[in-house]
Amino acid sequence: MNEYFPLGAKAKLYFGDAGAALSNLTELDNVKDVTVNMDKGSADTTTRANQGFRSETPTLKEVQIECEIQFKINDAAYTAMRNAWLNDTPLRLAALTGDRTESGSEGPMGDFGIKTFNRSEPLEDTIKVSVTATLMVWDSWVVV
What we know:
This protein has one domain (11-45, 54-143): Pnp Oxidase, Chain A (Roll), CATH 2.30.110. Helix content is 8%, strand content 51%. The chain contains one helix and seven strands, in the order E-E-E-E-H-E-E-E. It has one helix spanning 76-87, and strands at 12-17, 26-27, 31-44, 56-70, 91-96, 106-120, 128-143. It is globular. The model has no long low-confidence stretch (mean pLDDT 95).
């Protein structure tokens, strides 16, 4: 890993059964681009005493993982995500900046629901599946 600026190509997305330990997860090796969206809701805390300025206070955290995977026949990751979407079942995901055994690697881990499972079939490219996973149960922020 580049000590100062890790490359996205070295990041890892792991998946497995809901509640599984990081060591029991499998790398999703046919993933292309991954985006980890972390946001917070907000509460309007504006009062008349704030001199005409709106004020907000951050509230609950939200995590979404968006990824694009290459469709491969009989691929375990594709099958797990498809089944999680079809059956409304959670899937454990960990989106790390590097390998789960590499010092300095970090990222969110928890049980996610598959919200979108969109398949594109371009004429001159491979079939791809765009997935959006939303956090159902927070586990931890992994730091190796």
